[in-house]
Amino acid sequence: MSEYILELKGISKYFPGVKALDNVHFQLKPGEIHALMGENGAGKSTFIKVIMGVNIPEKGEIFFNGKKVRFRNTREAQALGIAAIYQHSTDYPDLSVTENIFLGHEDVSPRMKKIQWKSMNAKAQALLDRLDASFDAKTQMSDLSVAQKQLVEIAKALSMDAKILIMDEPTASLSNRECEELYKTTLKLKEQGVSVIFISHRIEDIYRLADRVTVFRDGQYIGTWDMAGLSKQKLIEAMVGRKIDQLFPKRKVPIGKEVLRVENLSLAGYFADVSFCVHRGEILALTGLVGAGRSEVCESVYGIRHPDSGKVYLEGKELRIENPWDAIGAGIGLLPEDRQQQGLVLNWELSKNISLINLDKYVKKGFYHIPEEKKDAQELCEKLSVKMTDVSDLASSLSGGNQQKVVVAKLLNTDLKVIILDEPTKGVDIGAKTAIYDIMCSLAERGYGVIMISSEMPEVLGMSDSIVVMKEGRVTATLKTKQADQETILKASMFS
Amino acid sequence: MDTTSPKKTLKIQSYRQLGLVAFIVIICIAIQFRNSRFLTVSNLLDLLTDDAILCILSVGMMSVILTGAIDLSIGSTIALSGMTTALCVSKVQTLHPLVCILIGCAVGFLCGAVNGFLVAKCAVPPFIATLGMMDIFRGLTYVISGGRWVSAYQMPESFKAIGTAKVADVHVYILIAIVVFAVAYYFFSYSRTGRKIYAVGSNQLSARITGINTAKISWLVYIIMGTLAGLCGVLWVSKYASAQGDTATGEEMSAIAACVLGGVGITGGSGKISGLILGAVFIGILNNALPIIHVSTFWQNFIEGAIILIAVLMNFAVKRHSERATLRRRKI
Q1: Do the chains contact at B206 and A360, CB–CB below 8 Å?
Q2: Rounded to whole angstroms, what are the CA distances from A170 to A165, A179, A227, A403, B43?
Q3: Which of A327, A469, B106, B203 could bond A303 through an S-S bridge, CB–CB 3.0 to 4.6 Å?
């Protein structure tokens, strides 16, 4: 038996005009958790696709247990016991957990090919038990939370007898507590001898789990390190390729008059008695666990949801907001959490996306002025340094961080007083994160009141002026960031 | 980072329309060989006159489909507005033709408003809402007419003149269709509302969060559709000088076919007037040409359907090809 269960040597993969992977290496030991890191566009996804037989590399060799292999399709990779859990889970919401686990490789009786429900349910339950899952195998998929769905995905991989499990950003949409659960599950798999390739942007994940880490940058292999003794600073530098002296470039901005005040806002089933206020130039962090009602509060302020009671004041005047268009008219903008579905029209040009919020601006004498629309979009994109060839690029062609900047550009294209950012750095790489933080500071400098919903503790502490913590629909703490620390916030969000 | 070249995408889009043009030209040449009367000015004018109503309807249908919805009730709307107008004009023989047209449009407007109300305000799925209203409007047509026809002798000459009027040898219906196309071109390409319609069809959630009143937009497109169908009701009844309970049954399908042929994406958000004109004219050519090359009436529907499917399949093939090309150019 060789030292490595999976080894890739000198892999290169070209797409027309682009070297997606350029002579990269990767070695996976049996029973280790190996993190794969790199900024968006570093080639991680392509690399995973090479391992899974989705992409066929132009150059390079793959060894499985020391034996040279070639994967022509996913099935061949799966046959050797390699399974992947993708970022966007591919479940069938109307089917049961058992059906999801065994879809495509059902147990059938040898002669009649009749599906063996009983044995399948039992096997599924056994797999779930092995993962310490708290739900039944007969549960319908749509009743599960994101974290639970991931367990199903893992169980599915195990049902195919996976020896190597690839997890692509599994913690991206989990709350802290759910992450803990996932850590436990992953470590347990490791104990059982499964090798894990773990992709994540969250440095905490990597330090909690990984034995070794491999970093890619711009399709190139940068290095592999043992986690023990590797400093965060060094890891970040390896990923970004330059020194980041400051992850949080918070600048001091004089805080002005109150701009938005929320009083005793309640919505049955989601939140109750929520009050807070934001001033001009202030960044307010709204934090707590996922599901604490933070997004719902902001959606109510923005008119997507309709609160049962409570008041919202803008610059001292009470607002009646029924719809998002009322909110924008009053001067409240929202950067939604799901930028691809809610923030952008992906198959549209950037310029069209940016103008959509303020179409009236471009109508002169009854005709729509496309050149002006493009000019404005160009200016805004330059101001936010969006990486693009042209404002007629399609929104879908940009990377996650740049898409986020375009959504911000869109918000800046109208007269706003308050900007709500719902998890603005979710799923973007470290370089883009810093850029978004920088944009947040300049928003504050320009006198906007900024509300940032965030679950990431360092970001909350590093970027805000004040903090509101929510737990199960109620505000459990309102703090000045200067006086706050991680412990207080955690306590307020979990135990109060 | 390598990005999609917009020029390339544009090129492929125009290929798609060129493909349809080529298809039309080939078919025209083939027909011309079978019957040399096909490509004469008088036959082409006849063809366009017969096609005009479909052209007008397809504009309405396009605006509905652009939002990702559908309207199945327009055949019935045509019947109802045509019947209402015919009944009015048979009672009051002195009614001015323009007033008749206004009556028809008003009935269509109301029909569209009801559809829009169901879809936009009551959140009934468009297919179901308009399927229900299709039967209701058709039923109403029979109820108000008592099941009887309004025939040519009950209509004044001034009303029948709408269907025969010409300006310098060009039938007035063609002119009306041209005006509708021109206004629609402006509306879809150069107005805010047009842009909003595309936005709603491309990504309704994002459009709503961006502050577009999506309910108002989907209501509006049904009203546009209904009003144009109402107009067509008057044109239809005047042209055939007869209003019947079963007028224009199935006409919605021709309008949908024109849109699909013209490259209007059935899931919403994409489509251009230039393509739509090609689609509507194409169907007009099929309707006109198959009889004059003596294809048996039994085969006409079959051939029409087959040709429509072939054209659409070709469209899909081109679209898939262009999407692949776009993806290949994208860095992963």
Answers
A1: no
A2: 12, 9, 19, 21, 66
A3: A327
Q: For residue range B83-107, what is the model confidence (pLDDT) as tens digits?
A: 999 999 999 988 999 999 999 999 9
Contact flag B210-A346 (C-beta cutoff 8 Å): no
Confidence band (pLDDT; 50, 70, 90) for B1?
very low
Within 10 angstroms of residue A412's Cβ, the number of other Cβ atoms is 22
- Domain span holding position A288: 258-494
Distance from CA of A37 to the nearest CA of B (A): 15
- Domain holding B44: CATH number? 1.10.3470
How distant, in Å, are the alpha carbons of B127, B130, B231, B256 from that of B119?
Answer: 9, 9, 22, 18
Closest-CA distance, B205 to chain A, in angstroms, reads 5
User: Is B213 in Cβ contact with A359 (below 8 Å)?
Assistant: no
Interface check B183 vs A, CB under 8 A: no
Q: Answer yes or no: do A410 and A302 share one domain.
A: yes
Cβ contact, residue pair B6, A323, below 8 Å: no
Interface residue A344 vs chain B (CB under 8 A) = yes
Residue A419 covered by a domain: yes
Task: Tell whether A277 and A171 lie within a shared domain.
Answer: no
CATH number for the domain including A69? 3.40.50.300
User: What span, in angstroms and rounded, lies between the C-alpha atoms of A396 and A400?
Assistant: 9
DSSP letter assigned to residue A361: G
Q: A250 in contact with B at a CB cutoff of 8 Å?
A: no
ipTM of the complex: 0.73
Interval A443-457: pLDDT, tens: 999 999 999 999 888
Task: Clarify whether residues A184 and A312 are in a common domain.
Answer: no
